[in-house]
Amino acid sequence: MTTTDGRISLPLLPPNHPLGRSSITCEYRCGNACSHEAPNTTDNAYFGDVVRSIVSRRGMLKAGAVLAVAGAGVAGMAGTAAAHPDHGGHGGRPPRGPKGLDFTAVAPNREDRITTPEGYHNSVVIRWGDPVLPGAPAFDFDKQTAAAQAKQFGFNNDFCGLVPFGHDRWLMVSNHEYTTESAMFKGFSQANPTEEQVKIGWAAHGLSVVVVERDRRSGKLLPKLDRRYNRRITVTSEFQVDGPAAGSQYLRTTADPSGRKVFGTLNNCAGGVTPWGTILSGEENFNQYFANAGSVTEPVAKARLSRYGLAGAASTRKWENFDPRFDVAKEPNEVNRFGWIVEVDPLEPGSKPVKHTALGRFKHEGATIQIARNGKVVAYLGDDERFDYIYKFVSKERYRPGDRAHNKKLLAEGTLYVAQFTGDSPATEFDGTGKLPTDGEFDGSGKWIPLASGDKSFVDGFTAEEVYVFTRLAADKVGATKMDRPEDIQPNPVNGRIYAALTNNTDRGKPGKEGPTEINPRNGNKHGHILEWAESKGDHTALTFSWKLLLVCGDPTTTDTYFGGYDKTQVSPISCPDNVAFDRHGNLWISTDGNALGSNDGLFVVPVEGRYRGYLKQFLTVPLGAETCGPVIEDDFILVSVQHPGELDGASADNPLTHWPDGGTAQPRPAVAVIWKSGCRIGE
Ligand code: FEO
Ligand code: CA
Ligand code: CA
Ligand code: CA
After folding, report:
1. Across the strands, what pairs with 187?
2. What is the rounded end-to-end Cα distance, in angstroms, of the chain?
């Protein structure tokens, strides 16, 4: 059924996989993380439940009174708005709609192209194999070489960031999260990849830095073959390790007895642009690249590997066949050199990228920076795994405007915290169905629990070095809150609150797993939710905060969804939020990964203030099998990463199921796309 503004009922088609992702994506992107036991097997309880059981045992206090302690920011958070959007018809002047949302929502669909609202255009900026460095050969799918790939745009671009670089000119930095060899090589044998195929895979990972220019006449964003600034970073590029765990015994290897020099970065997912013009990038599912963790029997080492999802024999890509550092049995510490936030300075092309140990080691989704009122720098960090945690880092030193050399050291020293969330409604009101509690909000308070600061550990039984290198195990000890896969986290530059995408967790409520809580209220959470919090007194270095769920995603016609209190008949369906960004009005933009409602993935926008809070509209969809990520929201154009187009069950280089972006019989190619409207700002 199609509604008047083009939205249609869901589901459209049965998804390919329980979460709308193809089995190929699961295998190559995260090493089938979802089909394995979630690595967090600790029994640290949800703090709301802990407090409530103490309260009921003592019979002294009402839970609400206890739980409101940290709630100073709640009153400052936007109220819900049940007001209906007025689409005219009152006979007079049409009332003003929400700023930046003046477009007709795109309908969910399964089209093999980018679909946008009427009046918008899109084009490819750069795609896998396009030249980045001078001398790069033209892409030839059937004659790929590692040497060529090292000069070309890598595979499966995820995060995309723009660093201003002159008028209508930017340094565009893209993460190349992972490779899908079966889509890259015809006749590919996963059991026996060739050495050249493996080396192409190494060169197709990492990051690309590309100068891009806006052509005002056409609206397109065009890549430039800039000799000085264009750059490729791959699995063999040298990184420097900084922070309190640099040189740690756990980071030393045969090739690097110093523990300070790492080759390469892996599975770079989301990221952020810092106020000093560098790029932060999260090393996420790094575990899948390492073989033979299952051969480790020493209990402490085994537990440390297992908590990071390392347990098996051969790896998916068999890199261990060509470089022993990817074999845990041969080089046990190499794996500890991944799982960090890395910082790349695109403005200094010769600079060595850095791995920041002060920000902890886990499956980092990304990192985004907020400068606190006192000048300290705060990084918000998510660990993307079922039942894993949200972290923040507060720098020791203060930001100095214009002093890049100083600012680039800010992430080397500070305090690392993990979040503990408490609900304010009785636990009995959460039965896993997603039903709203009687106070009408999924909300509560929370605190930041310190893990380590410089050389000082706050976790019993852990040295500071162990907190940084085995952060997940340290956080387990202090009662961190188990979340439904924390993805991108971003502070809103307009209202100062922080927004996190919790993409899904189909294990919630399963036997032996944590059940529903106010902050993760649905069992078998297929569609995910969006969390919003306000640091106490608006101080980003605060140790307490208040929180609300802004969205509980899914089909708005079902009772288990929530759209900020907004009229659900007016909103677009959304599933599996992943990346978040903001426009100049402070509207939240959300891209999705793995739509479990059957539509292609897309990009959405939702106001977070006033009467339109929760009025979610879909802005675009990406082609079949692709995920939308890396959104960059500029005033007059948007960039999206179209990651893994055509990655559908049964697809391969021998049987491509889509041909985006080149059409005809071409192989699909991951790409960055630009969307714009001639003569208009986005959403106006
Ligand atoms: Fe690579 Fe958490 O998404
Ligand atoms: Ca509540
Ligand atoms: Ca992501
Ligand atoms: Ca993703």
Report:
1. none
2. 28
What pLDDT score does 89 carry? 31
Q: Are strands 341-344 and 354-356 parallel, antiparallel or unpaired?
A: antiparallel
* Model confidence, pTM: 0.92
Residue stretches of the chain with pLDDT short of 70: 1-19, 46-95
Cis ω for the linkage preceding 11 (within 30 of 0): yes
SS (H, E, C) 106-125: CCCCCCCCCECCCCEEEEEE
What distance in angstroms lies between residue 303's CA and the mean position of ligand 3's atoms?
A: 26
DSSP designation for 353: P
Q: Point out the ligand 1 atom lying closest to the alpha carbon of residue 269.
A: 1
Query: In sequence order, what are the beta bridge partners of 641?
Result: 629, 672
Query: What are 502's strand-pairing partners?
Result: 486, 529
* Residue of minimum CA distance from atom 1 in ligand 1: 269
Nearest ligand 1 atom, CA 267: 1
Distance, CA of 355 to CA of 221 (rounded, Å): 31
Closest CA to 360 of 377, 347, 341, 378: 341
What pLDDT was estimated at residue 25?
79
Q: Which atom of ligand 1 is nearest to the CA of 363?
A: 2
β-bridge pairing 671-677 and 638-643: antiparallel
Helices (H) and strands (E) in the chain, counts: 10, 32
**Amino acid letter for position 480:** A
Residues with CB under 6 A from ligand 1: 177, 269, 284, 365, 384, 487, 578
Dist. CA 358 → ligand 1 center (Å): 21
Which residues place a Cβ less than 5 A from the ion ligand 4? 578, 593
